[in-house]
């Protein structure tokens, strides 16, 4: 997968986080993390994990955010 596709997930997640869009942030981060794992890209997985931690800081008590914890376990 081209680097640009990974970066699209990173940038989209960042924009959604800044706009405080919980569900779209969560969906983008989940899709990006699963793709990074599938393709074995630890670099982009770790970058997405940074955005996930921002999401946790903003909405850590939300059940949909708690459900993402499993997706962001290192492999």
UniProtKB/TrEMBL annotation:
<protein>
    <submittedName>
        <fullName>Uncharacterized protein</fullName>
    </submittedName>
</protein>
